[in-house]
Design a protein that fits this description.
It is built from 13 helices and 12 strands. The longest helix has 17 residues, at 299-315. With 336 residues, it is α/β, with parallel strands linked by helices. It has 3 domains: 14-66, 434 Repressor (Amino-terminal Domain) (Orthogonal Bundle), CATH 1.10.260.40; 71-169 and 299-325, Response regulator (Rossmann fold, 3-Layer(aba) Sandwich); 172-296, 3-Layer(aba) Sandwich (Rossmann fold), CATH 3.40.50.2300.
């Protein structure tokens, strides 16, 4: 016996939404397309009607009305840093939560030789509405190129050069100062540090805040790249050059994890022989043995603010650049 064919599901129209809300089709359309001048009571009525009827906007039709792609790019640092980096996972969760709530697609890109031209081309051709740049390098021309072309762009850190651009950052110097004050309070006498990449504002500021707070002209340091491997290499160098060291500040949790592995292999007990402090308060901090004392920056909250600011600039292209500063805190665990 043949199986009876099911009637196709009927697509709810905008006219049905308008009737359910008791408004005109034009008003319902303005709400669907995110026009901000609609009265709040009317907006609420239309949104209830959308929920009640199960209306799903037609992306192609909406794009024709708004002249937008309903897509933004999240441009991440070079591919070499991606594997195992918890910071980037937290960043993605924060940004995608906001863009998803607004019906905007988040396009992930990683910086390489072709990315800059690709981003600019996608913006010019209307395939992207805006861009979030994550920790661009000090000499990266892309931030200035996008700002001068008047494209919506926000940065996840202070620009390395003077540039009128919206950015969100944690107070990196203050965070590193917390680490320095804590190690000093433990009466550690030979303190060293593994820095982040100094061609970035983040790496530079964490070193500056730590060094200025210690006020130690003989502070020993080596440069890392925020990875676990660079932490291990840096710790090996510091232990060999300064065998009397009794404290280390690693400018990322991953580097601190690498440093801990070296100290353990050389029979240096943590924190009895060497106190260790990291930076980020990622999941890595809890996975360390012992659990890592670290500086926490609220990455998910910062990422959500990046997305909100970008969407605001897309809606209001003439709005002035803004800066949002988050305050780090010290999380006490067993490594220091």
């Amino acid at each position: 016996m043949p199986t009876p064919r099911r009637a196709p599901l009927k697509r709810v129209t905008l006219e049905e939404v308008a009737r359910a809300a008791g408004v005109s089709r034009a008003t319902a359309s303005r709400v669907v397309n995110g026009v901000t001048t609609v009265d709040e009571a009317i907006r609420s009525a239309v949104q209830r009607a959308i929920a009640d009827t199960g209306y799903v906007p037609n992306p192609a039709a909406r794009s024709l009305v708004t002249r937008r792609a309903e897509a933004v790019a999240l441009v991440l640092p070079e591919r070499a840093r991606l594997p195992g980096d918890p910071f980037l996972g937290r960043l993605l969760r924060g940004t995608s939560r906001v863009t998803g709530d607004h019906g905007v697609h988040l396009v992930l890109m990683t910086m390489d030789a072709n990315t800059r031209d690709q981003v600019a081309a996608d913006l010019h051709r209307g395939r992207l509405d805006g861009v979030i740049l994550v920790h661009p390098g000090e000499r990266d021309p892309l931030p200035r190129r996008l700002v001068e072309s008047r494209f919506p762009v926000v940065l996840s850190a202070r620009p390395a050069e003077p540039l009128a651009v919206t950015h969100v950052e944690a107070d990196q110097r203050a965070g590193a100062a917390l680490a320095a004050d804590h190690l000093r309070s433990l009466r550690r006498r030979r303190i060293v540090t593994i820095t982040g990449p100094l061609h970035t504002a983040v790496g530079h500021d964490r070193l500056a805040g730590f060094r200025d707070t210690l006020a130690d002209p003989d502070l020993a340091w080596v440069e890392g790249d925020f990875s676990r491997e660079s932490g291990a290499v840096g710790m090996t160098h510091l232990v060999e050059a300064h065998p009397d060291l009794d404290a280390v500040f690693a400018a990322s949790d991953l580097m601190a994890q690498g440093a801990l592995s070296v100290l353990r292999a050389r029979g240096r007990a943590v924190p009895a022989d060497v106190a260790v402090v990291g930076f980020d308060d990622s999941g890595v901090a809890l996975a360390c043995d012992p659990p890592l004392t670290t500086v926490r920056e609220p990455v998910e909250e910062m990422a959500a603010e990046l997305a909100r600011l970008l969407l605001h600039h897309i809606d209001h292209p003439d709005s002035p650049p803004a800066r949002t500063l988050f305050t780090p805190t010290l999380v006490h665990r067993h490594s220091a």
